[in-house]
Amino acid sequence: MPVYTGTRQDLEIEHHRYRCQNCARTFCEEIPFRYPGTRINERAASWISAFLRFNIPISTVQKITGVHWDTIKHIQKEIMDEAAADRMRELLMQGYRPKHLAVDEFAIHKGHRYATCVMDLDTGDVLWVGKGRTKADFSIFFHEMDMDYLSEVEAVAMDMNASYNALVSEHMPYAGTVRQGCPRNSQAGGSEEAQGQCKAAEGGRRSQG
Fold first, then answer.
1. 42-53 and 69-93 helices cross at what angle (nearest 10)?
2. By C-alpha distance, which of 180, 189, 184 is closest to 117?
């Protein structure tokens, strides 16, 4: 964190480097005030974190602080992970279980790569994001998620071009599936159309039972 706005402040310190006599591996002693995973100190990380918590874009924070993009992105990811964990604890304390899910894919890196997202349509919460959009990529969701938390899912909406329905049937046979134009996760609160189709599928499944 600079003493004066627009003036970079560098800290030069001395620390010891060691070599193991058994395996010859070298390592340095820890710097107590360095923020983990970065080359900045705790105070600078707190400064950057304050900008990010006000939803200031990374590019703007970079111009203000002069800190590398990857470092700011690292801090942003920690903030998001912390918020997601807090939200999950809140829902678990309330005894909440998702009822209607949506699976969507979206482009990253200017459309050259893709990721898959799973949302709770009733709350708008993003439950999981994984790299890739293949069936194998989506299968990771069922291994990383607590399936007891998903034990009350009644219906899952997904893109008509996706092949995810087989995985849903395998891991959540109690849930119905809705093949439709995908709800597109840009709508943070989910898609009303997808919610309606999920509930219609749920009703049809109950009437058949």
1. 70
2. 184
Q: How confident is the model over 54-104, as pLDDT tens digits?
A: 999 999 999 988 899 999 999 999 999 999 889 989 998 999 999 999 999
Residue carrying structure tokens 């600079």: 2
Please name which of 157, 163, 150, 152 lies closest in space to residue 184, comparing C-alpha atoms: 157
Complete DSSP assignment for 135-200: HHHHHHHHHHS-TTTTTT--EEEEETT---HHHHHHH-TTSEEEEES---TTSTT--HHHHHHHHH
DSSP element (H, E) containing 81: helix 69-93
Strand-pair partners of 28: 17
In sequence order, the β-bridge partners of residue 113 are: 108
Element (DSSP H or E) covering residue 129: strand 126-131
Pair 129, 193: CB distance under 8 Å: no
Q: What is the pLDDT of residues 186-205, one digit of tens each?
A: 444 445 555 565 555 555 55
104 and 191 in contact (C-beta within 8 Å)?
A: no
Q: Where are the beta strands (DSSP E) in 26-123?
A: 26-28, 100-108, 113-120
- In this structure, the number of other CB atoms found within 10 A of the CB of residue 62 comes to 17
Query: Residue 127: which of 164, 96, 163, 88 has the closest Cα?
Result: 88
CA distances from 43 to 2, 11, 60 (A): 10, 12, 19
